[in-house]
Amino acid sequence: MLVENSEIFLKLRPLDIESIEVFYINKLRNYPKKDVIIIIDFVVDKKLIFELNKWNSYLGLTKNILVVVIDNFDSIQFNYDNLLVVPTAEEAKDYIDLENIKRDIEKT
């Protein structure tokens, strides 16, 4: 599941929703102050969206962000959610880089 653990973000590629739930319960708290990229390669349903929103809320408490990568997603499916969904992992990384620049500017 863990693809990359950089200084500023975690990149995860879960096999299914159960692995997302297990990581949330058992491991996410071990990575404080990290933004998270989750690459989804399986069917997106309401249960997955609920779980991702839970992650988004948790990360928001520490002022971190969640970026979800879904190659082909239906924007209508995410219309009423606060999830940030992008089509590539590179775009997710770029977004996090920009957010970190913004955070640094706000500190000064």
Description:
With 108 residues, the chain is an alpha/beta fold. It has helices spanning 17-26, 46-61, 89-107; strands at 2-5, 9-12, 35-40, 66-70, 84-86. It has a five-stranded mixed β-sheet, sandwiched between helices. Helix 1 packs parallel to helix 2. The longest helix has 19 residues, at 89-107. It is globular.
SSE sequence, one letter per element:
EEHEHEEH
Distance from first to last alpha carbon: 36 Å
Task: Give the averaged pLDDT, no decimals.
Answer: 91
The Rg value, from CA coordinates, equals 13 Å
Helix content: 40-55%
Number of strands: 5
Give a brief rundown of this model:
The protein is of the alpha/beta class and 108 residues long. The chain has helices at residues 17-26, 46-61, 89-107, and strands at residues 2-5, 9-12, 35-40, 66-70, 84-86.
Label this structure with key terms.
single chain; 108 residues; alpha/beta; five-stranded mixed sheet; 3 helices; 42% helix
What's the arrangement of secondary structure elements?
Blueprint lengths: L1 E4 L3 E4 L4 H10 L8 E6 L5 H16 L4 E5 L13 E3 L2 H19 L1
Parallel strand pairs: 2-3, 3-4, 4-5
Antiparallel strand pairs: 1-2
Helix pairs in contact: 1-2
